[in-house]
Amino acid sequence: MTWHVSEADLRAYARAELAAPMLWSADTHLASCAECRAVLAEVSEPVDLGWERLDAELDAPRPGLFERLLVRLGAADHTARLLAATPVLRRSWLASVVFLLVATVFAVHSSGSPTLFLALAPLLPLAGVAASYGPALDPTYEMAVVSPVHGFRLLMIRTVAVLTAGLVLNGLATLALPSYGLRALAWLLPALALTATALALTPRFGPVLAPALVGGAWAALIAIADAMADGGSLAPFTAAGQGAAATVAALAAGLLYLVRDRFDVFLRSAA
Amino acid sequence: MTSTVSASGLSLHYGGTRALDEVSLRLTPGVTGLIGPNGAGKTTLLRVLATAVPPQRGEFTVLGHDPGSLRGRQEVRRRLGYLPQTPGFHPDFTAFEFVDYVAILKELNQRSARHGEVRRVLDEVGLGEVRGRKIKKLSGGMRQRVALAAALVGDPGFLVLDEPTVGLDPEQRMRFRELIAQAGEGRTVLLSTHQTEDVAMLCHRVLVMAGGRIHFDGTPAELAAQAAGRVWSSAERAPHAKAGWRTGTGTFRNVGDPPPGAELLEPTLEDGYLLTLDGYGMAVTA
């Protein structure tokens, strides 16, 4: 016998956690090596416990399509399950967003102006993030708050996933407006600014009122800019407007970080 | 006996409402019942002790940790099981997936160990056979057991149950009581309930709460004894009784100060509860 399975691998083997191809090598080797079998017996947990774990593993229901997709994309299985529990990452929500974007793109093509799309696109990620955390739409909110996972961490995991999904969908819609070039991407910085501002204000105003106020402020800003426009781009979509959006996004992100511990207890509207 | 939970002067106001008013208590292993009328502050007290809502005044420790600090709060939550008044579920999850989700929230990230724990708690509440069934297809009693299983993940030292028997039929309620009694062996359970039968059958100690304050703290027998000599039977409803109702035999059972020569009855836990709450606008008439 020229080699032996390392003790670490034998421990993993005993826990049914040794991955292929090392698992295949260990299987073959153990069949013919009494020395390794003896070490395996020493490092193994009691047989019943080992069987129970193996049984539980074999018995675990197969995760859904969305979770399997996330795992394939490299997410840890526990992160995938946390995301699968995010209310807005459901087909019905995503389908509504897609429908809205498609309708808006058609409206832009018929009106000949991208303003409607640019005004609407920042609101979709804002609404998605607002609906992904808090008592209004997360049925397990109360259980999540009293869990040892910090509320801000859970919020960030969900926010990143929802923002990514929302921005990708917005981005795909942007591709359907090639004639406007980079102008069609002017929704991106306002989207980040609105989302970060709403999250930063959530501990003060609650998870429903804060995004509603921010969304309302955005709608008012667009209406005012539209009334003051003289045929060119609306102010939020000019270079100066984009700079202002980037500044607001950065300031709101800083404020959000400062108030992060407020997400670890019941939010205002839930208490 | 060493206290699992020790609280002193807990106060919390919502606007002008005193949800908690200088509440002090000590909880020891076993099942402690918390009863009181709607709006008494029971759910607020449970949420404070479960670290979901910080008190505006007062301090408390759970299992030796102070939830006032971030680290202390995390330590408490690692040893806490919580079943809220209306537990929410992701309806598309199976029972296994839901409890697995809660186990992840409790930081059990190692997959095979976590799955073993999920299976253990589902077996413990008698749902091992339906663990692969979607929650939306389970009965109300089964859903409540799923929520209890989720609360039991990680073998918590302090279990907080907010009205877990509401909405269950008598058979489900009895089954659930068995599970709570089992859960109370070796750990501290705080059980909020409207059912005095729950307290009589399960609790070694009972707290009566109203108006944000605790008005009684003792054993169920001591609570029943509050009504000793103040429960009597009569052919007609006694006009000065605090509470009175016609029983199945056609006679009236009255609670309050009896008239001379009245036929006294053995007081129950409910009689003691009603008299303890006297003055809080809760009279039962029939």
From TrEMBL, chain A:
InterPro entries: Anti_sigma_zinc_sf (IPR041916). It comes from the Bacteria. It comes from Streptomyces fuscus. The chain crosses the membrane at residues 92-110, 116-134, 155-178, 184-201, 208-225, 237-259. This is Zf-HC2 domain-containing protein. Keywords: Membrane, Transcription, Transcription regulation, Transmembrane, Transmembrane helix.
UniProtKB/TrEMBL annotation, chain B:
CDD domains: ABC_drug_resistance_like. This is ABC transporter ATP-binding protein. Belongs to the ABC transporter superfamily. Residues 5-236 form the ABC transporter domain. One of its GO terms (molecular function) is ATP binding. It comes from the Bacteria. InterPro entries: AAA+_ATPase (IPR003593), ABC_transporter-like_ATP-bd (IPR003439), ABC_transporter-like_CS (IPR017871), P-loop_NTPase (IPR027417). It holds the Pfam family ABC_tran. Keywords: ATP-binding, Nucleotide-binding, Transport. The keyword Transport applies.
